[in-house]
Design a protein that fits this description.
globular; binds adenosine-5'-diphosphate; 10 helices; Rossmann fold; alpha/beta; five-stranded parallel sheet
Length: about 220
């Protein structure tokens, strides 16, 4: 299987986007660019961006399109992304962002946009039990904790409940998703880029279907 791919992965909060993106990035040897992880790192380091982002993030509201696009644009100009490609996770999240992304990647177009489809009642269930490593972003749950409680199996970091994984912030994020991100389905359908995958199955099954779709798209690109 050839290395390199340019993908956007869409899906509701708790659809398993993060887990799939990590696995896809290993499989294709491309960086996993997660805006949520980048922002959480900025908050922890208390950079100017992190200080600006912190309060909006804790309520579940979206950050301004220009701010987030600047951050993504910078990351996409780094050598690993320009030479091999990328898995974009959590961006774009609005039609304005998707239009900006089109300009950024005009010379290296996306292979496809993977939409992980999961019913809302299932994502709610997953989100309240979700626990996340503060250092590397690995995902666990109260029913599947790390081997050594609560230290990350991957990096030894502390595994906690994200401050925005409270019932109230989850509702705000799901509403923002419906209002701002759902229109991207039509946006990418119109461009012939959308591939919808049933995300309610096991991570292995979801990965298998995604790789099949991506391989087909890569062949079509030539
Ligand atoms: P979620 O679990 O809601 O998908 P993420 O980890 O992707 O969470 O993002 C966490 C928060 O970071 C969002 O609720 C939002 O405040 C901010 N954020 C991340 N990506 C974007 C984006 N593309 N546009 C605007 N805000 C964003």
């Amino acid at each position: 299987m050839a290395a390199g791919v340019r993908l956007v992965v869409l899906g509701k909060q708790g659809a398993g986007k993060g887990t799939q993106c990590v696995r896809l990035s290993h499989r294709y040897a491309v960086p996993h660019i997660s805006t949520g992880d980048m922002l959480r790192a900025a908050v922890r380091a208390q950079t100017p961006l992190g200080i600006e982002a912190e309060s909006l993030m804790s309520t579940g509201e979206l950050l301004p399109d220009e701010l987030i696009t600047r951050m993504v644009d910078e990351r996409l100009t780094e050598r690993d992304a320009t030479t091999r490609g990328f898995i974009l996770d959590g961006y774009p999240r609005t039609v304005v962002q998707a239009t900006m992304l089109e300009e950024i990647v005009a010379a290296r177009p996306l292979h496809c946009v993977v939409n992980l489809d999961v019913p809302t009642d299932l994502v709610l269930q997953r989100l309240v039990s979700r626990r996340t490593c503060v250092d590397c972003g690995s995902i666990y749950s109260t029913s599947e904790p790390p081997v050594q409680r609560w230290l990350c199996d991957v990096c030894g970091g502390e595994v906690v409940q994200r401050p925005d994984d409270t019932a109230e912030a989850i509702m705000t994020r799901l509403q923002a998703y419906e209002r701002e991100t759902l229109p991207l389905i039509d946006f990418y359908l119109e461009r012939g880029l959308l591939e919808t995958i049933d995300g309610s199955r096991t991570p292995d099954e979801v990965l298998k279907s995604t790789v099949e779709v991506v391989e087909r798209r890569k062949k079509e690109h030539g």
